[in-house]
Design a protein that fits this description.
3 helices, CCD62 protein, about 290 residues, mainly alpha, coiled coil
């Protein structure tokens, strides 16, 4: 009766081990689904890389536009230099005219008593000098306006250069984040392979221990009371050893379940980190688009 009870207990334990095996198979299926999800994420990352390439192409186009604008600014600067040279020439001419006017006034003062017609010429020259002064003031105002326009253009150029540097920094950060995410994916794949190998090893162990426990539970029949008692003692000892081994296997199974739970939590955390990285990349994309619009 004890042997039959032990057989029943062992059969129950075998049924529990089969249930555990089915649970492990379900866990393996879940891991395979996670692998498919990670492959989808990898494809999404590839699409994002293509999008980054497109962004780089657009940035190159914008660089060409900036180069053309710089050439135009150089042309404007050359025109400004020409205008400055012309202004200097006019100033020199004005100085020469002012000298001539002073000489004329001195000459007129000396010859005032001799000829009144020279006085009229002096008045005409003074009127001309007033016109020249007004012209000079107009030229000065024009030069001031041109200087203000040049300052505004330089401010715009500095703003564009700072924004371009910020965009380059954001692109570099996105590339580094993509590289780190690829490394984390490779590490996760290696960890999954190791977990699959460990689960296969556990399956092999369970299949190896179950039939041995069934075979040892069967007590052979011997003629004679002493042999029967010795065999019973041996079988009891073997059953005790098997029970200890079963308890040890249960403990190992619990430890492995805990490890599997920890690995699942780690995988969930990695998924959360991937989601955070994706959200961060989406924010950078929106910032880039807003900067482009600006």
């Amino acid at each position: 009766s004890t042997v039959l009870k032990q057989r029943q207990e062992l059969q129950l334990l075998i049924a529990e081990l089969k249930d555990r095996d089915e649970e492990l198979n379900d866990m393996v299926a879940v891991h395979q689904r996670q692998l498919l999800a990670w492959e989808d994420d990898r494809q999404k990352i590839l699409t994002l890389a293509e999008r980054c390439n497109l962004l780089n192409n657009e940035l190159n186009k914008r660089n060409e536009i900036i180069k053309s604008l710089t050439k135009r600014l150089k042309f404007l600067e050359s025109q400004q230099n020409d205008s400055k040279t012309s202004y200097e020439n006019t100033q020199q001419k004005f100085k020469e005219l002012s000298r001539k006017v002073t000489d004329a006034t001195v000459h007129c003062q000396a010859l005032e008593e001799k000829n009144q017609s020279l006085h009229c010429s002096v008045l005409e020259l003074s009127a001309k000098t007033g016109q020249l002064q007004a012209r000079e003031q107009e030229l000065l105002t024009m030069l001031k306006l041109k200087d203000e326009v040049i300052l505004e253009t330089t401010d715009h150029i500095t703003e564009f250069t700072s924004k371009f540097k910020k965009l380059e920094g954001a692109l570099r950060a996105a590339k580094t984040e993509e590289f780190s995410l690829n490394k984390e994916k490779q590490d996760l794949k290696l960890r999954l392979k190791e977990l699959i190998l460990e689960t296969n090893k556990l399956k092999g162990k369970c299949l190896y221990w179950a039939p041995n426990s069934v075979q040892t539970s069967a007590v052979p029949f011997h003629s004679g009371t002493f042999c029967f008692k010795d065999d019973l003692c041996e079988k009891v000892e073997e059953n005790n050893k098997q029970q200890e081994e079963i308890i040890y296997l249960k403990q190992e199974n619990g430890c492995l379940r805990n490890e599997l739970a920890l690995t699942v939590e780690k995988a969930k955390r990695k998924d959360q980190l991937l989601q955070f990285a994706k959200s961060k990349q989406a924010r950078t994309d929106t910032e880039l688009s807003s900067l482009r619009q600006v």
